[in-house]
């Protein structure tokens, strides 16, 4: 038996069970008339017939992306179906197919932030960073409460070497959701491609984690920035924004591994006074 047919029969079986419960006799009332046995042509089957979109959604849940695409193609081509089909293409690493679906969804709903965010991920994959930034800015405009869109905007800015603006977007993302960089999503933006870009992103992420009250996470990002050569121990020590980390043992150990030993908890020791004559 084909998987689709099995799914249909299971849905029908559940529906019949629900109807049986509803038909149970209620004390003090005459018993309900018997429910006729369902047949392949009964009204129960037609009432609970799954749509192509329902079947495709189920296949997506089981990671059967190619089969899901075929079912989505048979469903009404509304924007949400087009977006789902785009996600399926993207999960198959078919960037061109995904892009066509997202563009068509946006043609019908040009102000949909979700579709804009997904289209932005296509531009990122194609390394069209300036276009990705413009697309993410639109997504943020239509949904300023989304930490995910702010994060993706920041990553696109970092990829385009606009570190200061990327840092601002990351700050906003962390403000909206301090755990945003721990979340995963079905369609997400990867880290910037070059080591330099990743180093910059990790460096500014460390600053953002300090502001969000996450010192341990800040140290992890700083360690990555050091390994990627974006910064140096001396620059970190000289940056006042990292002062809150100086008393954290993990930070002291990381600095010691870099040959810098913190002998004072004072962030910036006072300058020497001139010798009195």
Can you offer a commentary on this structure?
- The longest helix is centred in the first third of the chain and has 20 residues.
- This protein starts with a helix and ends in a 20-residue tail after the last helix.
- The protein is an all-alpha fold and 277 residues long.
- The N terminus and C terminus are likely disordered.
- It has 14 helices and no strands.
Summarize this structure briefly.
This protein has 277 residues and is mainly alpha-helical.
What topology emerges from the helices and strands here?
Layout lengths: L2 H20 L20 H5 L4 H10 L3 H10 L4 H13 L3 H14 L4 H13 L3 H14 L4 H13 L3 H14 L18 H17 L3 H13 L5 H6 L10 H9 L20
Helix pairs in contact: 3-4, 4-5, 5-6, 6-7, 7-8, 8-9, 9-10, 10-11, 11-12
Helices, by number, come to 14
In total, the number of strands is: 0
Q: What would you call the shape?
A: elongated
Structural class based on helices, strands and sheet pairing? mainly alpha
N-to-C CA distance: 100 Å
Major sheet details:
none
Chain-averaged pLDDT: 79
Helix content: 55-70%
Order of helices and strands: HHHHHHHHHHHHHH
Low-confidence stretches: 1-39, 265-277
Strand fraction = under 5%
Rounded to an integer in angstroms, the radius of gyration calculated over CA atoms is 28 Å
């Amino acid at each position: 038996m084909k998987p689709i047919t099995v799914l249909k029969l299971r849905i029908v079986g559940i529906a019949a069970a629900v109807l049986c419960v509803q038909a149970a006799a209620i004390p003090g009332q005459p018993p309900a008339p018997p429910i006729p046995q369902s047949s392949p042509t009964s009204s129960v089957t037609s009432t609970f017939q799954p749509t192509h979109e329902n079947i495709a959604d189920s296949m997506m849940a089981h990671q059967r992306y190619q089969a899901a695409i075929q079912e989505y193609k048979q469903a009404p081509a509304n924007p949400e179906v087009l977006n789902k089909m785009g996600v399926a293409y993207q999960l198959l690493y078919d960037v061109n197919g995904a892009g066509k679906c997202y563009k068509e969804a946006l043609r019908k709903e040009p102000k949909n932030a979700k579709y804009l965010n997904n289209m932005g991920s296509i531009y990122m994959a194609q390394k069209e960073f300036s276009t990705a930034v413009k697309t993410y800015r639109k997504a943020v405009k239509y949904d300023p409460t989304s930490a995910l869109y702010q994060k993706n905007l920041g990553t696109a800015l970092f990829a385009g070497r606009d570190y200061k603006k990327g840092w601002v977007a990351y700050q906003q993302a962390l403000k909206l959701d301090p755990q945003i960089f721990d979340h995963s999503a079905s369609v997400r933006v990867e880290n910037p491609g070059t080591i330099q870009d990743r180093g910059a992103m990790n460096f500014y992420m460390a600053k953002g984690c300090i502001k969000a009250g996450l010192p341990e996470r800040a140290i992890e990002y700083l360690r990555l920035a050091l390994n990627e050569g974006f910064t140096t121990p001396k620059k970190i020590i000289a940056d006042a924004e990292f002062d809150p980390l100086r008393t954290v043992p993990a930070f002291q150990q990381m600095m010691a591994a870099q040959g810098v030993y913190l002998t004072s908890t004072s962030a910036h020791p006072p300058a020497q006074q001139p010798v009195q004559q």
